[in-house]
Amino acid sequence: MWDDYIQHNSTCADGKAGFLESIKGFLSLDPLIGIIEHNVKGVQSHNGNGLF
Fold it and tell me: CA-to-CA distance for 43 and 50, rounded, in angstroms?
């Protein structure tokens, strides 16, 4: 995420710092976070790693 990211949620500040501040409560719940890899035939992912 870029430092100048424009947040579309009016309750969160723009940028990486605003995003991190907005998810502090969520992360304090110790959620299980995983990465889902998608294999879509004929579609190239943004980073070329299968993650969209």
Answer: 9
Bigger pLDDT: 34 vs 50: 34
Total structural domains within the chain = 1
User: Residue 26's domain spans which residues?
Assistant: 1-30
CA atoms within 13 A on the CB side of 50: 6
Tell which residue, 27, 2, 25, 28, has the closest CA to residue 14.
2
CA-nearest of 31, 1, 4, 28 to 15 is 4
Question: Is a pLDDT exceeding 90 seen at residue 25?
Answer: no
pTM as predicted: 0.49
Q: Can you tell me the distance from the alpha carbon of 49 to that of 52, in angstroms, rounded to the nearest whole number?
A: 8
